[in-house]
Amino acid sequence: MTIAICKLCSQEKQLLNKSHIIPDFMYQDLYDEKHKMYVFNPIKKAQEKGHVKRPSSGEYEGGILCADCDNVLLGEFETYASKAIYGGALPAKECPTSENCINQHGVKFTKCENIDYAKFKLFLLSILWRASISSRPLFNDIDLGEHEEPIRKMILDRNPGEVSDYPIIFMTYLNDKSMFKDLVAHPQRRESKSGHTIFVFIIGGMFYQFYMNNPKLKYPDYVLTETIKPTNNLNIFHIPIGEGMDVILKYYGIHKPSH
């Protein structure tokens, strides 16, 4: 272990040799039989050359976090998220519920309730923040700039902020059985139609779109109504069947070759 300043608590401590940027449990559908991870290369996929393999058990880095921050603070959020997403020994009153719905515009979505606002939001923001401080090539596009410090403080103080503080929009193509789940894509920085900077992560069939605060811009109404809220609920939009790959490639500015 190295003695240095922990990136999260800002204290001089022994730092771990291995801290996952994206928690290992989120990769559970992304490994082959030898626990090697399949990594998505959008250009090769557009050329219909499939996946590429990475000899790794996920993205991790040493010398950034102390054991207290990694194992205790972030570990608390990760333990909750793992049980909430994949099922686990949560008390009955804390178990999330979900229901598939269709809104007035014909858009299909999953309504999730009884999601712990603070733990789940801070869990997701911690992934974004860790990606920003990481030097791993996979996260080259994730640079929070002026937002890195306020998000660090939110995580350290266990303060999820208001619903308008770094809201997250969720989408999935897991409703499309023709799509593969074994995918983790290079996270992207994009600009939304509203002018907001957004960071997009695609992991195991889920899209996580993080909106950056900008006091000069107004969030679209759907961002604040569909994101996770202090009422402990969120909505996950379903990408229409057959459009999942098009949506993925769109984030990379890639058009599938015409035949």
Outline:
Helices cover 25% and strands 22% of the residues. It is an alpha+beta fold. The strands form 4 sheets. The chain has a 7-stranded mixed β-sheet with strand order 7-8-13-9-12-11-10, sandwiched between helices.
Give descriptors for this structure.
seven-stranded mixed beta sheet, single chain, two-stranded antiparallel ribbon, 259 residues, alpha+beta
- Biggest beta-sheet profile: 7 strands, mixed
Compute the number of structural domains.
Answer: 1
Q: Supply Rg.
A: 18 Å
| Principal-axes shape call | globular
- The SS-based structural class is alpha+beta
The helicity comes to 25-40%
Characterization of the model:
With 259 residues, this protein is α+β, with helices and mostly antiparallel strands. It has one domain (2-251). Helix content is 25%, strand content 22%. The protein contains 6 helices and 13 strands. It has a 7-stranded mixed β-sheet, sandwiched between helices. Strands 1-2 form a two-stranded antiparallel ribbon. Strands 3-6 form a two-stranded antiparallel sheet. Strand 1 and strand 2 (12-15) form a beta hairpin.
